Amino acid sequence: MTFTYYKYSLLLLGSVFLTGNLSISVNALENNNFSTATSSVPYLAQEIKSNNKTDSREYTYKAPDSKIISNTKQLIEAQGYRVEVFGSEQVLLQQVKDIEPSAFIKGDTIQVGIFSQQANAENMVRKLAVKGFWARIKVQ
């Protein structure tokens, strides 16, 4: 137990010692004083030269524009109304395609279409109900 205590104490002291050297090196880098930094921690103060010029790159970042939709009408118009028929059998898909040719199987349902207006989605559900299909509208 005492050996473990001494081992961790030495590790702690070593990390404090290294942290002190690193802070000196960082200060030396900030002040462009490389003489002490290169002797204590050479990998932090390394200069890269090519053709007697120091390579440097400057990056300018700009935050993306955030468009805030304040009008709730815009939010409603951005919604989509997905019409689905329950079932995923090929025979059922062919029958639904007689009403809407672009229908396809998606998971355990058949997606008939996505409509931007709720009234159009409701009309499609009525067409499907007349033919005996049970459909639902999911708001996206």
Automatic annotation (TrEMBL):
Residues covered by the SPOR domain: 102-140
Q: Which Pfam families does the annotation name? A: SPOR
Which Gene Ontology terms cover its molecular function? peptidoglycan binding
**Which InterPro entries does its entry note?**
SPOR-like_dom, SPOR-like_sf
Which named protein is this? SPOR domain-containing protein
Q: Which organism is it from?
A: Waterburya agarophytonicola KI4
